[in-house]
Amino acid sequence: MTEVPPNTLSSMKILTAAIQFGSSRICAAAAKINENGSYEVIAIESVATSGCLQYGCVTNIDETAQRIKSLMQKLSNRVMGNGFGALQSAYVGLCGISMHSMEYQPTVMLPEGQKVTDDIVLQLQQKSREISIQDYDILGLKDNGCTVEGETAQGHHQLILANHRLKQGILQAMERAHIQAAGFLATPLLLGDILTTEEKQQGCLLLDLGAKLTSISIYKEGKLRFLTVLPLGCDSVTYDIASLGMRVDEAEDLKRTWSDASNPSVDKIQTPSLPMEVNVKELNIITMSRYEEIASNIQHQVEKAGYSKLLDGGCILTGGGSVQKGLTTLLSRRLETSRISTRSCNTIRYANSERKPHLASLMSMLNYCTVSCEAPKKAEPAPPKVTSEPQTVTAVPVGARPAKSKKTGIRDFFGDLFSGLDE
User: What is the chain's pLDDT, residue by residue, as a tens digit (423 residues)?
Assistant: First the structure.
């Protein structure tokens, strides 16, 4: 997969689509690309991944294929109601536990006196994409520019790698569902679009908090410096709460409605949905403990990358887990920064009711979906060909007597209808 320049479009309306394989749900969206290059979301659908994906990787190809097929059929039904044809393909967003960045610096020789041209830049990028790393696929490339030393041009690239099983499993499921992959995109890389230029320049930490995965990206001096994906997410908090003796869906509701990751309490509450009295202090201790573990791992990755206390642009949260009450306070304390904000994707036009952080990755993907994913419409059958000249028919007056045949004398029951043929 190569990094696709956004908005390289033709002058006609295009229907495009993206499907994202998250850690808890498979989400898909269809968008109309207008003549001016703007994107307008038409429909969004999703389905749970339980039983078919684990940490972004396919564990059951047949079950995954069935869910993809059902999901894309629902999406097709909705876009067909807007005057488009069915969808036959989609761009595929990938994020899994093996995904991480690797710095690579390819070189090419410059002819004497020649400056770095666009062709040289493309040569450097091609060299990076063609390197072979055992058991890994290159899913993305972030070009951080190039430098020249003497007659040598050196590229500075961040390659986004993932174990080949991540892409292979999803590709097999897509093929079995008879949905073509228009391209593969590394969603943590594309999420950088929700950051401001100032944040990237000053240095910032971008966290995408999902159900079972947390992606970490570090930007400094306008460039991507580090990216990795942790096998830790907000579902672990839900399961911890469920250990108190309740169903998982009850625990999830309790977490979203009542828990606070930064403020233990001694009060008790009685919720309408739960037939039990819940100790808020115990609930918050469980919630805070698990988020402290996640925050500790994030902090370790920042230190490992060498950017501890160097990210003046702060920390930007997105993803479904970013809305947890008290999380910004906990992270501010752990990461020693007061500049923490929660953000969704604002580069795509879609309904305000859907402008939520858990859709940020999917919406960021759409801005890189540049080709039509619409199935070709069937041609209408051509009208039958006329094999002979039409005959002139003379109407017989009502009540007229049939004429005799000129050759046989037998009265012709068709009268004057064919009389001109014998003359």
Answer: 333 444 444 446 899 999 999 888 999 999 999 888 888 899 999 999 888 999 999 999 999 999 999 999 999 999 998 889 999 999 999 999 999 999 999 999 988 778 899 999 999 999 999 999 999 999 999 999 999 988 899 999 999 999 999 999 999 999 999 999 999 999 999 999 999 999 999 999 999 999 999 999 999 999 999 999 999 999 999 999 999 888 999 999 999 988 999 987 766 666 555 556 678 888 999 999 999 999 999 999 999 999 999 999 999 999 999 999 999 999 999 888 879 998 877 655 554 444 578 888 998 999 899 999 999 876 555 566 655 454 444 444 444 444 444 444 434 433 443 344 344
Amino acid at 8: T
The b/e string for 162-179 (b: 16+ C-beta within 10 A; e otherwise) is beeebbebbeebbeebeb
Q: Is 141 helix (H, G, I), strand (E, B) or coil?
A: strand
Segment (H or E) for 65:
helix 61-80
Q: Which CATH superfamily is domain 14-366 in?
A: ATPase, nucleotide binding domain (3.30.420.40)
Tokens of 20: 């994202």
- Residue spans of the domains in the chain: they are 14-366
Say if CB 196 and CB 167 are below 8 A apart: no
Q: Are 130 and 138 in contact (CB under 8 A)?
A: no
Alpha carbons 269 and 327: distance in angstroms, whole number: 21
Phi/psi region, residue 221 (left: phi>0; alpha: psi -120 to 50; beta: rest), is left
Report the half-sphere exposure of 328 (CA within 13 A, side-chain side).
14
Q: Which of 223-239 are b and which e, b meaning 16 or more Cβ less than 10 Å from the residue's Cβ? A: ebbbbbbbbbbbbbbbe
- Specify the residue for token string 């290159």: 138
Under 8 Å between Cβ of 306 and 219: no
Gyration radius from the chain CA atoms: 32
Q: What angle do CA 331, 336, 338 make, to 5 degrees?
A: 75
CA–CA dist 216, 199 (Å, integer): 15
